[in-house]
Amino acid sequence: MSRRLAQRVIAGARARRDACASPFVLEGHVMACWKPSKHSFWIAALTTLLAVAPVAFAADGDKSTVKGLITAVAGDTVTVRDGNNVDHTITLTSATEIKKKEGLAAVRFERMQKSALIPGLPVTADLVAQGDQLQATAISFRADDMRTAQQVQAGVAPTSTKVDAMGKRMDDFGKYEAVATAEVMFASGSTAISEKGKSDLMELSKKAKDIQNYAVVMQGFTDSTGDAAANERLSKRRADAVASYLQRQGGLQPGRVTAGDGMGVAADAGSGSNANARKVVVKLVVDKGVNPDAK
């Protein structure tokens, strides 16, 4: 905390104490003024300090992360509003890394200039406290978010409705929504996909190709007959067979088809042989943050 800020807060508390040195009149009634003790005076001053300067107590070198929406940019100062509608004033330095992340997993990135930071862009900022400032060591954002923010900038002036909508997209990142589901059934002990199963998978592949930033996830199951460990291995092989078919015959990108999970015996398998339990459940999903129209 700066010495000047501390002095202003304590001076204000003393002024309020001195103002209560005599009674006052309120709507015709003489009112006695409460005279605080020295102990309560310092409690009031400390409470005021905590209220007006919550971040001022961060020691130099303290690290933190803020995730939010850029609301203003002025030179090397960026204002980011987080999910609790709290504004954070962030200072950029010559050492600040600005990265645009690419792809579904956001593991690839491109270094960007400060000019890439514009109002309406959801960002994640890694910060370090230096004096009264929060300096950014790194700021990252998704390529899709940058395109959306640029479109808003290039079209009409950003409105509060648009900024709020982009804030909701930021909150939705990582929340996957299923847009299509298929169940592929198997014969007892088999990993061979039936003709109906192949037809259902081709239909799902067709839907996937019409959707941006999709992913396909799947879980394999067995009935309750046989050894538990063997059933788990069989369920995994069934899921792998479906994943391979989607990539080779369905033409889906390998990076979009996740490795199948072998779940073993299905929860609804019951006892004995159950044809409905010998299956792979396949779901075509989208990230609601990337595809905001997903329901």
UniProtKB/TrEMBL annotation:
<dbReference type="InterPro" id="IPR036737">
    <property type="entry name" value="OmpA-like_sf"/>
</dbReference>
<dbReference type="InterPro" id="IPR050330">
    <property type="entry name" value="Bact_OuterMem_StrucFunc"/>
</dbReference>
<dbReference type="Pfam" id="PF00691">
    <property type="entry name" value="OmpA"/>
</dbReference>
<feature type="domain" description="OmpA-like">
    <location>
        <begin position="173"/>
        <end position="288"/>
    </location>
</feature>
<feature type="transmembrane region" description="Helical">
    <location>
        <begin position="41"/>
        <end position="59"/>
    </location>
</feature>
<keyword id="KW-0998">Cell outer membrane</keyword>
<dbReference type="GO" id="GO:0009279">
    <property type="term" value="C:cell outer membrane"/>
</dbReference>
<keyword id="KW-1133">Transmembrane helix</keyword>
<dbReference type="InterPro" id="IPR006665">
    <property type="entry name" value="OmpA-like"/>
</dbReference>
<keyword id="KW-0472">Membrane</keyword>
<protein>
    <submittedName>
        <fullName>OmpA family protein</fullName>
    </submittedName>
</protein>
<dbReference type="InterPro" id="IPR006664">
    <property type="entry name" value="OMP_bac"/>
</dbReference>
<keyword id="KW-0812">Transmembrane</keyword>
